[in-house]
Backbone:
């Protein structure tokens, strides 16, 4: 009797214990799905930010294992196709949801992942656990455990974030040995990083920084501060690399000096951070503004990343910086639109915002200048076409092109007049608006040069470069352009005097003349048939 | 009386256990230590030299508050589990030692009721300590940055279920033991093992498929242990809870599942305790 | 019905050593019964198996074989049997941080008492054990006697029919012993049945109606004190007795029980008429200083039983009376 009930209780214990274990395996399944879900969210958010709209490989300079035969994109595409029929309608943001490559909107999955709304997140989660996606989920985990996902292979990505379930195919999940003190360890490592910084031991900071974010991949401040050290403080202690000593990097599509390597180290760190924390605006903002804009002067990428920052929950200054970067990237219309929205009283904006008011004017002036430039190009092209046509004996065509050229010249002139008015207005409004001053000087000098008064133009430019030293480079560039052109073309001015710095600049330019130009984003607003590809 | 027969005496025993437990010196010691860490963490960042060098003051304040949060959450977890282990390991052996158990069990109280009362009392102590530490942590946070992170409450709740598993198995072992030394060591061992369960999975992955029969046997054992042992790391949702967006579907699914997980293992722990204690010669 | 506790062939064997290779017999085929309304003294040296028996009665440990009946029932673990038993363990501890009546309230709640009934009962038992003046004091300030009285009070909470007391007077001062003894006698008079285990024989002798003597797990003897202590003798105190005379007396059947330099204590067996003994002494020139009748004490009986049990012989005691 007693042994019977004893056995019964023993059985009960075993049964409940097994139930616990079953629940444990259920939790493991959920956690596996969670890894998949987070991968989908990260991939969906990051893909539109990359140049080739693929899951960007080799994130992180020290990104650990080399993945041969990566399956990231193939897998994502397969899931993407399935998701098209599975997900509900996802609104399309015309500003940022259009692919630069295909011109079509991004897929539903990408849009949903980027949007980050609670309902869509729930839907993606449902998708990650749905039987329809079982095959893809299984593939994902197979690739993960056989080390074929580059997006998960960086030393501090998913593999450490989720405490090594499937990810630790090759190694032992060291992070599980910290007994929940992993994050505390990361904090104390960070204090050590700070110490190294103040001791000037910068070379020791980098590995520690990486360990730090490996231990706690959601330590956003570590990414931010780390990238700041990498892109600002370390390069500041290094020499400039002379232009001709820079090396071309296929991966970065850029000529790289010593400092650039550090800038990109910062980029990589922030990209890792963004992959691990895809919904934190600070990472996108620092990536865009602090590094791409300020350090690399890559306005296009800067605009892309800051736009992503504005899509997430963000603070107000992010918007303002976004409009500024849009302007620098030549996207004047968008910048104006942004500012108008920012200042719109009905949309909770700030009517009469001083910087906004000025920025709209500045943008308008730049826009007019750009249109004028486009019109000039069209006029030039039309003239050239007219000459060609005349040579061919096609007079009708030649006449037509000539007429077009005159029209374009008129347009260019009127646009330039608009720009002038705008700059004048700005110059009159704010005492010492050096931007307006320099732009006016550039416009006037160009016009004087065109009219033959190049000496006056040079004088104006020199004067302006004292007044608006911030824009010295633009002014000096025109000075050199004029001087070079005159000394080459106008007889009697062969030995026109160049200053030492001008000579050096010209020489430097000559040494790197054969280099690919990392061009600035060129948006053509006025088009004509005379300009070919 | 109004209480059903089977609940006879459970509550007074629980209250008695609680009243006795909260007076323990080890417990008070751990509590004081944890409070030192919680409030001490506020000053830890003072060691971060040269705060004025940062690009914007904001970031450093964020790092500081993150440090306070991480240190406090970990301190609560570690000291809380120590309190849970020491309490659950000692309540029954201590009564055996001072013979209170004889007077209690000679009353019309069945053994499972006695155990339930004791277990309940232990949980009351553990919960009270957890609440106390959490409240002080929130006060510390409030002093630091005037916010009450409601999401941290979830983390605290999950931490409790982690304690519950460790506590129930420690309690079970204490029911078979005659002194509290062995169950205390066992409790620490359970905590450590529960934290290293993932490691068993690694062992399995590395050793399985090996030609060496010994290695594949090890892999087999590791696999089954991994499958059945409670994995305490599962309760560590801090990443998701503390730093991710408020709407996080996986966390939403995981929290109730983890609670069920904790309750199931705790129930099996209690059954084991009863099984060991039912025919124990006192 | 008069059998309150009935033990039949009760055996308890502990396994010890590696792989339970050795058996330790704590109790061997014990037959014992306690009648209604009596004080039963359960005697034996330390380690003889008294506490083992009591723990089995209370279901704290389980018999290897044999049966236990309490109030005629075998399901001794059931709450309604336990309701009727009060138990005072040996050297029990009561937490320092509680007050006297808080402890009683706790134990009362275990009996499912509550509300006014509980408070009334606490008042009663506190008065009964004479702790009315100290009931609101913390246990910390209690003397050993006060603690024992609170222990007794908790055993009495449910107004039980059976009281099982393990060494109730051990370690107390004479006054406290007397008080406890009086309380116990009073309880007996109120119709309770008491089982008192002790190794302090003089105490038990004073109040027990019947005793059982346990040694090495075997009940050596059991019966009323009158039955057990039949051995009555007389002692003569003799002055200046020569050693040859002593031998002669010894040959005549009078042994010396004890002797100092000039005095000898002679033990006159019960079988010898006192006048014959006086005559014998006179014949041997033994100067009688004093003479005293002597009834064997429980202690002497105990020593004798234990002694003979150790020697492996049957004790010379009268057969215990058949259970009434």
Residues:
């Amino acid at each position: 009797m007693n042994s019977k009930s004893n056995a019964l209780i023993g059985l009960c214990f075993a049964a409940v214990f097994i139930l616990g274990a079953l629940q444990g395996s259920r939790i493991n399944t959920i956690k596996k799905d969670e890894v998949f879900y987070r991968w989908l969210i990260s991939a969906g958010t990051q893909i539109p930010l990359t140049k080739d709209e693929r899951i960007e490989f080799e994130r992180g300079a020290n990104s650990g294992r080399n993945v041969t035969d990566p399956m990231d994109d193939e897998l994502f595409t397969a899931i993407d196709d399935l998701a098209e029929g599975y997900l509900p309608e996802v609104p399309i943001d015309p500003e940022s949801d259009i692919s630069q490559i295909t011109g079509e909107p991004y897929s539903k999955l990408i849009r949903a992942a980027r949007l980050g709304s609670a309902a869509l997140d729930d839907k993606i989660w449902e998708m990650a656990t749905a039987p329809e996606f079982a095959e893809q989920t299984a593939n994902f985990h197979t690739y993960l455990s056989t080390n074929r996902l580059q997006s998960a292979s960086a030393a501090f990505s998913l593999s450490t974030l989720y405490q090594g379930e499937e990810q630790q195919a090759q190694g032992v999940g060291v992070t599980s040995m910290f007994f929940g003190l992993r994050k505390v360890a990361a904090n104390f490592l960070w204090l050590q990083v700070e110490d190294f910084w103040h001791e000037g031991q910068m070379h020791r900071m980098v590995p520690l920084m990486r360990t730090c974010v490996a231990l706690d991949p959601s330590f956003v401040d570590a990414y931010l501060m780390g990238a700041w050290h990498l892109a600002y403080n370390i390069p500041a202690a290094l020499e400039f690399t002379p232009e001709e000593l820079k090396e071309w990097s296929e991966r970065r599509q850029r000529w790289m000096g010593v400092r650039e390597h550090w800038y990109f180290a910062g980029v990589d760190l922030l990209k890792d951070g963004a992959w691990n924390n895809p919904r934190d605006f600070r990472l996108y903002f620092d990536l865009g503004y602090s590094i791409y804009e300020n350090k690399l002067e890559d306005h296009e990428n800067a605009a892309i990343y800051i736009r992503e920052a504005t899509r997430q929950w963000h603070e107000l200054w992010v918007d303002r910086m976004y409009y500024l970067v849009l302007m620098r990237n030549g996207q004047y219309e968008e910048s104006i639109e942004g500012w108008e929205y920012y200042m719109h009283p009905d949309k909770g904006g700030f009517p009469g915002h001083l910087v906004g008011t000025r920025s709209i004017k500045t943008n308008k002036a730049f826009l007019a200048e750009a249109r004028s430039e486009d019109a000039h190009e069209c006029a030039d092209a039309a003239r050239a076409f007219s000459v060609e046509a005349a040579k061919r004996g096609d007079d009708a065509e030649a006449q037509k092109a000539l007429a077009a050229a005159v029209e374009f010249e008129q347009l260019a002139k009127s646009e330039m007049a608009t720009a002038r008015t705008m700059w004048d207005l700005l110059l009159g409004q704010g005492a010492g608006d050096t931007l307006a001053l320099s732009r006016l000087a550039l416009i006037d000098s160009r016009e004087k040069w065109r009219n033959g008064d190049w000496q006056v133009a040079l004088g104006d430019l020199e004067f302006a470069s004292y007044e608006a030293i911030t824009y010295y480079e633009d002014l000096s560039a025109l000075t050199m352009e004029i001087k070079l052109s005159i000394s080459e073309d106008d007889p009697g001015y062969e030995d026109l005097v160049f200053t030492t710095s001008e000579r050096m600049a010209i020489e430097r330019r000559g040494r790197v003349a054969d280099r690919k130009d990392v061009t600035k984003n060129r948006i053509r607003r006025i088009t004509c048939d005379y300009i070919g590809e | 009386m109004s209480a059903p027969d089977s609940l006879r005496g459970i509550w007074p025993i629980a209250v008695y256990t609680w009243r006795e437990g909260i007076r323990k010196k080890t417990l008070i010691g751990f509590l004081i230590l944890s409070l030192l860490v919680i409030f001490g963490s506020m000053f830890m960042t003072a060691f971060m030299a040269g705060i004025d060098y940062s690009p914007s003051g904001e970031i450093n304040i964020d790092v500081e508050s993150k440090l306070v949060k991480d240190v406090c959450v970990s301190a609560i977890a570690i000291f809380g589990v120590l309190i849970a282990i020491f309490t659950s390991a000692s309540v029954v052996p201590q009564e055996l030692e001072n013979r209170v158990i004889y007077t209690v069990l000679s009353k019309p109280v069945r053994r499972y009721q006695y155990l339930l009362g004791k277990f309940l009392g232990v949980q009351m102590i553990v919960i009270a300590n957890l609440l106390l530490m959490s409240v002080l942590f929130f006060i510390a946070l409030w002093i630091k940055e005037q916010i009450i992170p409601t999401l941290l409450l979830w983390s605290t709740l999950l931490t409790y279920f982690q304690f519950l598993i460790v506590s129930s198995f420690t309690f079970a072992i204490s029911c078979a033991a005659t002194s509290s030394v062995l169950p205390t060591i066992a409790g620490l061992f359970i905590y450590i093992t529960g934290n290293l369960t993932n490691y068993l999975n690694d062992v399995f992955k590395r050793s399985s498929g090996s030609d060496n029969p010994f290695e594949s046997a090890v892999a087999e054992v590791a696999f089954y242990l991994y499958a059945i042992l409670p994995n305490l790391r599962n309760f560590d949702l801090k990443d998701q809870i503390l730093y991710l967006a408020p709407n996080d579907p996986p966390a939403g699914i995981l929290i109730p599942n983890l609670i069920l997980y904790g309750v199931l293992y705790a129930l099996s722990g209690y059954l084991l305790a009863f099984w060991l204690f039912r025919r124990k010669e006192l | 019905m008069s059998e309150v506790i009935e033990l039949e062939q009760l055996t308890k064997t502990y396994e010890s050593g590696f792989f339970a290779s050795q058996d330790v017999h704590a109790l061997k085929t014990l037959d014992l019964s306690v009648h209604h309304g009596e004080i039963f003294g359960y005697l034996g040296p330390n380690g003889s198996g008294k506490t083992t028996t009591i723990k089995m009665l209370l279901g704290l440990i389980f018999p290897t074989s044999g049966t236990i009946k309490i109030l005629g029932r075998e399901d001794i673990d059931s709450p309604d049997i336990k309701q009727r038993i009060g138990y005072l363990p040996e050297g029990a501890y009561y937490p320092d941080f509680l007050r006297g009546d808080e402890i009683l309230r706790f134990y009362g709640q275990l009996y499912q008492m509550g509300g006014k009934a509980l408070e009334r009962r606490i008042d009663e038992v506190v008065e009964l054990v004479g702790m009315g003046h100290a009931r609101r004091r913390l246990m910390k300030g209690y003397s050993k006697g006060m603690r024992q009285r609170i222990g007794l009070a908790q055993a009495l909470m449910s107004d039980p029919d059976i009281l099982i007391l393990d060494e109730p007077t051990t370690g107390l001062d004479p006054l406290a012993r007397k008080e406890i003894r009086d309380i116990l006698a009073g309880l007996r008079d109120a119709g309770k049945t008491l089982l008192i285990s002790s190794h302090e024989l003089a105490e038990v002798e004073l109040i027990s109606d019947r005793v059982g003597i346990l040694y090495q797990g075997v009940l050596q003897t059991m019966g009323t004190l009158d039955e057990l202590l039949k051995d009555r003798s007389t002692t003569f105190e003799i002055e200046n007795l020569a050693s040859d005379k002593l031998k002669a007396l010894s040959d005549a059947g009078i042994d010396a029980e004890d002797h100092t330099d000039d005095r000898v204590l002679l033990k006159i067996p019960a079988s010898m008429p006192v006048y014959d003994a006086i005559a014998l002494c006179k014949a041997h020139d033994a100067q009688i200083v004093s003479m005293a009748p002597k009834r064997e004490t429980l202690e002497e009986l105990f020593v004798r039983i234990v002694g003979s049990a150790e020697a492996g012989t049957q004790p010379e005691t009268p057969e215990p009376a058949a259970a009434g």
Remarks:
- The two ends of chain B are 29 Å apart (CA to CA).
- Residues 49-57 of chain B have pLDDT under 50 and may be disordered.
